[in-house]
Amino acid sequence: MSEEADKLRYLAKSGHEGGTLLLGAADRLDRMEVSSAAMVQLLKRLEWSSFTQGQGSGYMSSGGDGPWIPTCPICRNVHPEKGKGDFIAKALGHKQDCELLKFLETGDKS
Q1: In Å, how far are 90, 97, 100, 103 from 48, measured between CA atoms?
Q2: 78 exposed, middle or buried (CB, 10 Å; 0-12, 13-18, 19+)?
Q3: For labelling, which of 12, 25, 63, 98 has a CA lying 20 to 30 Å from the CA of 92?
Q4: CA distance 19 to 12
Q5: Residue 83 — very low, low, confident or very high, per pLDDT cuts 50/70/90?
Q6: Measuring CA to CA, which residue among 106, 98, 109, 104 is closest to residue 42?
Q7: Counting runs of H as helices and runs of E as strands, what totals does the chain give?
Q8: Phi and psi dihedrals of 79, rounded to 5?
Q9: Cα 73 from Cα 23, distance rounded (Å)
């Protein structure tokens, strides 16, 4: 987006009609870019922010003393490394249709 903002600033400085509006739009584009980058960083920090308890040591994995494993707050699957040994392979890592994973990989906000 900063490339587009630079183009708007260039047009504004070249005496283009509505230069003030163009400068304002360029400033808004820059703020949007910072906000978008901040949002991505926040979502990366929240990626494994939920927790699910692993199997316990009691009869048939009961007992309520299992370890707490980081979990995706969107798809509810567990951290791929930290959940090994406590969860089946299908529960490790994000689900294929996880919206958080889609955004983190592609930046697609739709």
Answers
A1: 17, 16, 10, 14
A2: buried
A3: 63
A4: 4
A5: very high
A6: 104
A7: 3, 2
A8: -55, 130
A9: 40
Return left, alpha or beta for 93; rule: phi > 0 is left, psi -120 to 50 is alpha, else beta: left
- Region 73-94 average pLDDT: 93
Please, are residues 41 and 104 in contact by the beta-carbon 8 Å criterion?
no
Q: What is the per-residue pLDDT across 39-69, written as a single tens digit (0 to 9) for each? A: 788 788 889 999 998 888 778 777 778 899 9
Average pLDDT, the chain: 82
Measured distance CA(20)–CA(45) in Å, rounded: 38
